[in-house]
Design a protein that fits this description.
The chain folds into 2 domains: 11-212 and 335-409, Rossmann fold; 241-324, formyl-coa transferase, domain 3, CATH 3.30.1540. It is an alpha/beta fold. The protein is built from 18 helices and 11 strands. Strand 1, helix 1 (20-30) and strand 2 (34-39) form a beta-alpha-beta unit. Helix 8 (173-196) packs across helix 9. The strands form 3 sheets. The protein has a 6-stranded parallel β-sheet, with helices on both faces. Strands 7-8-9 form a 3-stranded antiparallel β-sheet, covered by helices on one side. The longest helix is centred in the middle third of the chain and has 24 residues, at 173-196.
Amino acid sequence: MQTRLPLEGIKVIEFTSTAVGPIIGKYLADCGATVVRLESHKRLDVLRFAGPFKDRKPGYERSGYNACYNSSKYTASVNLGTPGGLAIARKLVLWSDIVIENLKVGMMSKWKLDYANTSKLKPELIYLSSTQQGQTGPHANVVGWGIMPAALAGMVEICGWADRDPVSPSGSYPDWLVPRFGLTLIMAALLSRKRTGKGLYMDVSQFECTLLMLAPAMMDYFSNGHDFQRRGNRVPYAAPHGVFPCSGDDNWVAVAVTSDAEWQALCRVMGKATLAEDPKFVTLTARKQNEDELDEIVAQWTMVHEAVEVERILQKAGIAASYVKRCTDLFEDAHLNARGHFTYLNHPVIGKHAYENPSFVLSRTPVQARWAAPLVGQDNSFVLGELLGMNEEEISDAFARGELTSDADVVYGQAAR
């Protein structure tokens, strides 16, 4: 007997772009929800133009970046710039249990697809909006990309080396963080609706979600007046604490020593037992005061060993350590493969492509990416016909009136603006 998926029967409509909205939808879709993403050839999601591309040949259906976040979904190419397109979108909202949108503040209300309008027709609707700084406040209308809330939250200021300019965390950090908040809110809203029969509106500020990750630094400032400063890989509570070179070409290992006992164990495995009693390193305070020299000593030992070997030796000695992995290492990782982290699905253009499954395992309702991300408008017939009950003639007429878009609406391989 086939196992029922945990969110089977839940219907979701996405008005989303780039990463935050699509990632929330991916979680729901991979867990069994019927997720429909509205797109348009006239204004394609910018993520469709972001690499890496299959065979390094750009194309809005060749982006692995876009494909990664849209598994298990359906898509319909609806032109929201037409009255008929808006009517289709409105029907899909009323069909759905959940609306996810991360568009510019005011867009959904302009189309009268905002929560204030749609909840009057469907009070049980669950509606999540995610924007840079939320729907209210003096900066609500400020738009941008993931690096912006990271900078606003102070994260960019504290990343990097003390004697160099600040740097952004790798990638658009808030884009990978905020969806976890959004998913949790939606699950809580579903439980609330089950008890009360009523829907909820959730206004998610990417700025504020990111700010929560700096809670210790903010509390230290509030309580002690300490303003967190850039310090590379170092932290106040551990030494050595950093990433050290290993043998071979650009190989590294991360090491964190958080106690005097671990420091003594590190000295033993390095063959420098007497160093543990050196007054310059015997306590954490002493090690922090002489951290440059300490790091050099550790580096001299790691650089003559392979990174995997250093990881094994230190972990066996009870010291936290991990070699720095490349993408190749991740796909070959025995632990990730044993847990089924990756699924390989066939995309219509990209071909066989790796997708990440949800990063949790459920005992009674296993979940995974079910099918590859769709092409723009690939599921028009299913969405309009099966879900909304339109017949073939009505769908054909919608195309003729420009309410649905096709590849012919894309100008010179880029979205018309």
